[in-house]
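Regression test attached.
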Amino acid sequence: MKQEDQAQAATVLDIEDLMTRCLGNIEFAGRVLAKFQESGDEHLAELEQAVASQDTEAVAQLAHRLKGASANAAAPGLCARAAEIESAARQRSLREIPARLENLRHEWSRFAAEVPRLDWFPEATA
Amino acid sequence: MRVLAVEDDCVSAEILENSLKHFGFEVTTAKNGREAFELIRTGRYRLVVSDWEMPEMNGVELCRQIRQRQWSSYIYVILVTSHNEVGSVVEGLNAGADDFLAKPFQPEELRVRLRTGERILSLESRDVVIFALAKLAESRDPETGAHLERMREYCRILGEELSRWDKFRHDVDGQYVQLLYLTSPLHDIGKVGIPDRVLLKPGRLTPEEFEIMKQHAVIGGSTLDAAARAYPEAQFLTMAREIALTHHERYDGTGYPRSLHGEEIPLCGRITAVADVYDALTTRRVYKPAISHETAREMIIEGRGTQFDPDVIEAFLRHEEDFVEVGRRFDEQAVLQSEKQPPALVHSVGV
Ligand SMILES: [Fe+2]
Ligand SMILES: [Fe+2]
């Protein structure tokens, strides 16, 4: 993998951080990522629905949960995007939410594109 | 040890559970405060790690619910907070949280927090076990009421006073007073080895029976000696042994079981002697009515230098009102108790 690719990937997924959180258990880290992707799809759909129905309370809660999950799954980009939505919802600045949701969606697809490339995963952490 | 992990997000829950298991804990998970509270009610959890924000019942509310009730033992709660909630740590403390962990947590930090929690819980278990043991011995002696509770208060008062004297500065510190408070209730533990016909005899003991009764000091001392040898690092066992063995020694060397003189008697033994006798005098026993504080005071002063260490008597005289106050407090409690239910085991919790 080229140098700039690695720098790019770091904001999507911080492998070192993930491995610390998983106490060095590679197999477990793989399961966490799979679970994160699976639940992330669901959470994103729920969030979109809450935005559509302008339920700011639910938007804040769902974004908060996604923020926590991304932080634990060592996905700093997603974590930041979710945090932006949460704070907009808590401040009731509804107008900003659709654009931020778009950013989150974009980050999500970056993440989804990045993670399957993790066949180099074991070497990267060796 | 068992831990209850409370977290609504499945990814975070997975990581939390994995870390806890890695550190050797047995883990149960709950998805929100309500679910967690139901589990806590089973009485199987003493250590709880909970997320702050959750649907249905959040972590702070869970804390409040836990603190509103009496549990058989203390429940230690660690709240996991994300950055924007750090400002509300005060709210968490008010709700009764014991510690906090920033989210996303570092496993090593989690381990440190849990270790602190375990240590505090084990101190509580130790205190409760010691006191339960003492109560067990006392249970064969139905007349003594709150003797142990009062006596350890008296010991603490005396110990705290002596800790301020230059003479005792090196030996008596806060830790010593704490140990004294903890172990003085064990002074008569040897009575479990005294036959009922002697221990429960309503009238005066014959000289032969009195010789048997005196054995309680040796029995208690050697029982605790065995424990102290097995766990030499446990200071409370060493002190408990000295107290059990020497609380009937007299300053002039005419006491039992070893006729020790003056400072040959460990200080904890000299302190408990005064506390024990004062309480015996001022409370009713089968064979005698309660004596007023004033009379008891005179009798104790009379024992200065013969039965008791003059220094301990001096400490007693400086805190007479505190002694009277302790006696009064337990009288009131006894009245309250008899209006309610049978007395429950009193908790001695250091947290
Ligand atoms: Fe005794
Ligand atoms: Fe006693």
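Expected vs. actual: identical. Strands of chain B lie at 2-6, 26-30, 47-51, 76-82, 99-103.
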